[in-house]
Design brief:
61% helix; single chain; 72 residues; mainly alpha; 1 helix; rod-shaped
Length: 72
Amino acid sequence: MSSSYIYASLSLIGLCSLAGAGVGVGSGVAMMYSQLAAAEQQKSQTSAVVAHSPLEKRITVTRGFAARSSDQ
């Protein structure tokens, strides 16, 4: 009789380990899906074109772009 108890306990331990592995894989898939959904949501929110800064600096050119250096 004791051998049947050993087999029953080992099969329960195996069943619990398989269930634990299933929970681990399921939670991993759920985390990856939630990260993918968050990345898609962030990508859709930041797709609009925005200016780098609200104030644009004015550049004044005193000489032409192709001015010769001998004129200095």
